[in-house]
């Protein structure tokens, strides 16, 4: 009864003029979110979380230029992935019966970032791969280890991974990043990989805050870092406006203020929006015999440079 009333056109038109009805809509939305296990955050002033960069507006000018200037590096990196053509083509396109196996159309990781997860441990002969947040990424890395006889050790930091992930890892820490001993990251050496796919939100004592202020500064030269869900030099999508993600703004600030410590290796969203680079990605898929539709994804890879 109440659902039909809320969804009626007349009631919606009335809400445009009634603060009380707007309050009712907001209360209903809050109830849904609480029932879904979400946690509200209250702030003391109104905000307007609309895309400022891209999505119909120009990208952030300085970040765009910064990323554009390293385009040759991205092209060369993607070309190297073709060395593993046979193995990449052996990965199933759709979900296999074996839940431990990776597959391309997984709904979470785009094609180029999935290929990167497979290829980088091989190209770098990585000895240690630490991931904050486990899932499909773990499956691609484990597949690379198995098919190429790598000595890479997988360490998973995730309080609530899917059940099958534990058996794919060499070490599991089932707690949030902010609750672990960060000396763990001292074991990352040149050629090793750190993957971050956490809350995407910078708050007091959140995983993003700990990563940028405590972990990133202590990483050794040559360590490769991968952060998921980075849209730079564009904003987060409009449909994510109520997620209040803030992680990429810290990364953008870091890159703009960087004095030469970091090198961008593979900014997947930038690549997918660049006419030349996106056509190069299509050519890559044609070359190795996989469909273009699996795309790029939105992962962002950068390395701590050797001085």
From TrEMBL:
Which GO molecular function terms does the record list?
methyltransferase activity
Q: Which UniProt keywords apply?
A: Methyltransferase, Transferase
Name the domain of life: Bacteria
**A Pfam family name for this chain?**
Methyltransf_24
Coiled coil location? none
Q: Does the keyword Transferase apply?
A: yes
GO biological processes: methylation
**What Gene3D superfamilies does UniProt report for this protein, alphabetically?**
Vaccinia Virus protein VP39 (3.40.50.150)
Keyword Methyltransferase among record annotations: yes
Know the name of this protein?
Class I SAM-dependent methyltransferase
Tell me which species this is from: Nitrosococcus wardiae
């Amino acid at each position: 009864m109440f659902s039909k009333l809320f969804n009626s056109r007349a009631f919606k038109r009335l809400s445009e003029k009634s603060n009380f009805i707007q309050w009712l809509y907001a209360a209903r939305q809050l109830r849904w979110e609480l029932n879904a296990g979400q946690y509200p955050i209250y702030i003391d002033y109104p905000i307007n979380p609309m895309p400022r960069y891209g999505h119909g507006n120009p990208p952030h000018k300085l970040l765009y230029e910064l990323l554009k200037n390293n385009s040759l590096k991205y092209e060369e990196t993607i070309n190297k992935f073709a060395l593993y053509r046979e193995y990449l083509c052996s990965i199933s396109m759709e979900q296999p019966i074996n839940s431990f196996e990776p597959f391309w159309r997984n709904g979470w990781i785009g094609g180029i970032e999935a290929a990167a997860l497979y290829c980088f441990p091989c190209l770098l002969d990585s000895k240690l791969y630490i991931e904050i947040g486990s899932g499909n990424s773990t499956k691609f890395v484990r597949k690379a280890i198995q098919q190429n006889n790598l000595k890479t050790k997988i360490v998973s930091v995730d309080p609530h991974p899917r059940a099958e992930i534990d058996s794919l890892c060499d070490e599991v820490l089932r707690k949030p990043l902010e609750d672990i001993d960060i000396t763990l990251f001292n074991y990352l050496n040149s050629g090793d990989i750190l993957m971050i796919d956490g809350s995407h939100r910078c708050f007091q004592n959140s995983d993003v805050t700990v990563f940028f202020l405590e972990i990133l500064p202590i990483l050794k030269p040559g360590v490769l870092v991968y952060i998921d869900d980075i849209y730079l030099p564009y904003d987060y999508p409009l449909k994510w406006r109520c997620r209040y993600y803030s992680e990429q703004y810290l990364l953008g600030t870091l890159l703009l203020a960087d004095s030469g410590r970091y090198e961008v290796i593979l900014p997947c969203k930038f690549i997918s929006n660049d006419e030349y680079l996106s056509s190069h990605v299509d050519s890559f898929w044609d070359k190795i015999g996989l469909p273009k539709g699996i795309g790029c994804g939105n992962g962002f890879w950068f390395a701590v440079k050797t001085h």
